[in-house]
């Protein structure tokens, strides 16, 4: 599903999940990034669909600052917060389940028409994404049938 850039992620997610409820009855867990973080969204998903929402966080989330929680700020709590901030992972980090999305985006963006958003309507972009995925599936099926034909001929 493609939404306008002005649509907040959680609102677009609600629309998507409403549509997916009918089409994906066996779905149990949804992996989301920090844009979907929040108890309101997770409660909404659980109430409407009974699916579990798991937020996949980058280890360096919120890493610009060292946060100290609580009222009592002592030298020890300050040093502990700074040590935790310095020990965070930097750069590229493999995130659970994120590679599936990134791989799919790479397949779609390998087609010139979708590298830059030329379309006026989000529905047009969505249609092009469907066309690209149909093309990818047809190519895989053709390769699979060629492989099966060679195996049967031998």
Quick synopsis:
InterPro entries: Transposase_11. This protein has a two-stranded parallel ribbon. The chain is mainly α.
- Which stretches are low in confidence, meaning pLDDT under 50 for 5 or more residues running? none
Strand element count: 2
Shape: extended
Helix content: 55-70%
| Alpha-carbon distance between the two ends | 44 Å
Radius of gyration: 22 Å
- Number of H- or I-type helical stretches: 6
Question: Helix/strand-derived class?
Answer: mainly alpha
State the strand order across the main sheet: 1-2
Percent of sequence in beta strands: 5-15%
Q: What is the succession of H and E elements? A: HEHEHHHH
Q: On the 0-100 scale, what is the average pLDDT?
A: 79
What is the makeup of the main sheet? 2 strands, parallel
What does this structure look like?
This protein is mainly alpha-helical and 154 residues long. Helix content is 56%, strand content 5%. A two-stranded parallel ribbon has the order 1-2. Helix 1 (9-23) packs parallel to helix 2. It starts with 8 loop residues before the first helix and ends with a helix.
Explain the layout of strands and helices.
Elements: H1 9-23, E1 29-32, H2 39-49, E2 52-55, H3 75-86, H4 98-109, H5 112-115, H6 122-153
Parallel strand pairs: 1-2
Helix pairs in contact: 1-2
Main features:
extended; single chain; 2 strands; mainly alpha; Transposase_11; two-stranded parallel ribbon; 154 residues
């Amino acid at each position: 599903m493609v939404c306008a850039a002005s649509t907040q992620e959680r609102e677009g997610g609600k629309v998507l999940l409403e549509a997916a409820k009918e089409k994906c009855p066996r779905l149990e867990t949804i992996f989301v990034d920090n844009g979907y973080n929040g108890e309101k969204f997770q409660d909404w998903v659980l109430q409407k669909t009974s699916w579990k929402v798991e937020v996949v966080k980058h280890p360096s989330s919120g890493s610009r600052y060292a946060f100290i929680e609580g009222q009592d700020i002592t030298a020890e709590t300050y040093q502990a917060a700074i040590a935790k901030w310095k020990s965070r992972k930097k750069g590229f980090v493999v995130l659970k389940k994120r590679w599936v999305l990134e791989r799919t985006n790479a397949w779609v963006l390998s087609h010139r028409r979708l590298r830059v958003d030329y379309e006026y309507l989000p529905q047009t972009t969505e249609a092009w994404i469907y066309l690209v995925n149909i093309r990818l599936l047809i190519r895989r099926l053709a390769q699979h049938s060629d492989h099966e034909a060679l195996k049967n001929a031998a």
